[in-house]
Amino acid sequence: MSRAVYNALLITEDSDSSDFEAEMSAFNVCVRKIKTFNPRIDYFNLLDENEFIRRFRLKKSTFDKVLNEIVDQIKNSTDRNNSIDPIIQLLVTLSVASAGKIVKRVSYALAFLSSRYIRLPETPEEKMELKVQFYGLARFPKVIGAIDCTHIKLQCPSRENGELYRNRKGYFSLNVQALVNANLEFMDVVVRWPGSAHDSNIFANSRLKARMELPEFSDCIILGDSGYALSHYLLTPLARTTTNAERLYNESQIRSRNVVERTFGVWKRRFPVLFFGLRLKMETTMAVIQACAVLHNIARLQRDPQPPDDIENIKQLLSAEISEIEAATQPQINSPAQALRNALVIEHFSVL
């Protein structure tokens, strides 16, 4: 028996805890400290509505709705080690974009809601409602959506494939395709292509293209910029205009298509991390982007106000980013799609 253990046994049982710890220390015997946990701040009840929106980018009622949607996916099975409540997990995810199990878990849970909140119109009534909304913008008929891509900055993904993610502006990114409606809501989002991928190539290999070619969307049109190939369902601007009807067509097409650029601006202002970049693993990065798209749609449906811009000059930075998008023009060839566009110019825009 060691001297330290022998001396410890000499301590009487009626010694109080403080004497016991002092005597143990004197005999060089380790005593395990009791774990202590700092109380977690209840920001949901502590902050007023305006401050909560500023810090967490959503109204309290919207936050509560989102929490109820994902609580079963993110709650811990036990309370061991003072496990983190779902409400704290969601607050952490909305307030910071850092690596960690909490951000990953919540982002995947939110991304799982995509099928509910990001979808194409299915019924004739839904399609007609979208057409009426777009026609009210600039009198362009049969339009259900506008399509474009935006770059989300990344850290260099890997040495082997890093250059695939370097875009034409010189930084690493994911090129994210989105189809939006007139209410600035996402109807389709593709988050998997590297920054070097061209917008038209992303669309050509997307599920959206396959669906637009089905009979269910035979009487529907989407609008894109000159970076996309002209087709009977995707109309692009005219390269040259000579008549008043052609000028009206281009003006209406551009004004109607502008909703997608506005959507990107509103989206990145609500979640500035999408503008300034993500430093996460690729799988988590994709989940975060998809989760932000889901949250954006929920916020639009709940009529959440736009959070204040705490980051100086972010509006100017976003405007500069949008104005710098210069897509390569697709070659204009004689085709049935071009004939359809010409007929639309003559039959509709010549009488406006």
Radius of gyration: 28 Å
Shape: elongated
N-to-C SSE string, H for helix and E for strand: HHHHHHHHHEEEHHEEHHHHH
User: What percentage of residues falls in helices of 4 or more residues?
Assistant: 40-55%
Mean pLDDT: 85
Number of helices: 16
Strand order of the largest sheet: 3-2-1-4-5
Span between termini: 103 Å
Alpha-beta content class: alpha/beta
Largest sheet: 5 strands, mixed
The amount of beta strand, in percent, is: 5-15%
Using DSSP, what is the number of strands?
Answer: 5
Residue stretches low in confidence (pLDDT < 50, at least 5 long) are: 4-13, 324-331
Structural account:
With 352 residues, the protein is α/β, with parallel strands linked by helices. About 5% of the residues have low confidence. The protein starts with a helix and ends in a 5-residue tail after the last helix. α7 crosses α14.
